[in-house]
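Subject: sequence -> structure tokens, single chain

Hey, anyone have a minute? Need the predicted structure for the following. Not urgent.
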Amino acid sequence: MHLSGTIDFRPKLLSAVSNYSLSKFKDDLIAGIVVGIVALPLAIAFGIASGVSPTIGLITAIIGGFIVSALGGCSVQIGGPTGAFIVIVYNIIANYGLEGLAIATFMAGIILVLLGLFHLGTVIKFIPYPIVVGFTAGIALTIFSTQMNDFFGLGLTNLPSEFLPKWGVYLQNFGNIDVPTLIVGAASLLIIIAAPKISKKLPGALIAIILVTLFIYIANGFTDFFAGVETIGGRFKGMSTDLPEPHGFKLSMATINMLLPAAFTIAVLGAIESLLSATVADGVTGSRTNSNTELIGQGIANITVPLFGGIPVTGAIARTMTNITNGGRTPVAGIIHAVVLLLIFLFLMDLINMIPMSCLAAVLIMVAYNMSGWRTVRGIFKNPKSDVTVLVVTFLLTVIFDLTIAIEIGLLLAVVLFLRRVMENTAVKVYSEQLDAAEGTDMSQHEVLDVAPGVSVYEIEGPFFFGVATKFDELMRTTLSAKPKVRIIRMRKVPFIDSTGLHNLELLIKSSQAEGIDVVLSGVQPNVHATLEHAGIDRLLPENHICDHITKAVKMANAVALKQ
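Reply:
Had a minute. Here:
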């Protein structure tokens, strides 16, 4: 991990405005307005579900969305609070308070900036897909479970944050369902489901909020049946419409050590979600996201947002796709979306206060359903058992414990299973008497080499890393019937060698030479040869004992064996 060359920070906004036109602005204006309207209910819902006020959700979408568009590496990315962060944010607030969340988000922003500066934008994309699917499905189920109280109007307070105890409380109190609240929630859910069937451009969440809120307002003029349905204004009284002033927070090594795992989880989750969103967007628009710039932009957004009391920010796939389908093609559309939300925040908060909480619960239930990716989960269950194991373990850890543990153990499990698969597919072959030089190649003409008595040939097919190094050492010791005079290590199919492989190879050479056995290396690839030179392995062997082809190696080994 190193800074190679110049810092890879080239915001797409700079290249977009260099050849901007009125027609592009019209497209971006329409897309920005539509995305701003679509983002409104989501920002409010995600803020409330995360354990903060709807004001904080809007502030996050405004400031974070603006910075992501202005400084990011994707032309059409829309940033803001997302469902993926609900669980981790809620747990951080429960354990460390709002200041702990601000510090964790700030630290996550620094981590994201460092990932971009060290050119790790492409590396993040290689996190195993079953892990992403597993914790996304786990988050979806957790979000769904958090909405039961508001959807059914149970009126519960101080709910346990853990999944199983929470459902235990739900089951004990389902007899206290508030019928008017349930009717409002169910009607909202039906509208959200039906809206795309009428027109895919209709934002179902917004349509549901407008219709249901209007209905409740009118109905309350004729009947008291819906008077007890809780609204945003009823729960969050006295919400200010003034933009918050930036404020700092106290940092200490004890606080950093305590919140670093949470910050790491926010950073990894934000990087994965934003780059996944950007990849999907690139596939639709044909553009190319600068992954490192995108991470730096996301990092700056997450450094800035907590200074105004906001929650973590990342790229939002649904809002990004809404931007694309409505004609947005430059970061200007994302900036307009933030301006639209700012205007709503400044002038329409009185209307927002009238939105029923059960309607927002329906919005989040639909978000959870879309996040679950159950079709993808079903498809992965047809994959190898190792992928299924990683998915199931990550899912269960996310639901039963928390996202930090799920990501850490999921990554560890994926690495272990991957290494096992590599070891299983790395072969060590032993040859004596005869060797086909063309074996394992596309060559039609075979060259059979005679191996003199006293010459043993070992071929390593695959990476020579720590697991295989031990395997090779054990195989070499168990296959010896008599002490050879020369050992040929054929390495034509070794793409890389790690420090353990180098150490074992060094021990093999030294122990062989101590026993009077010559060692010859054959077919060493250039990058592996450079690694051997850097480690000084080449100096342990005579000059001509590293051959570029097996024919030369066998000829030399036969000559050495016949002399002894």
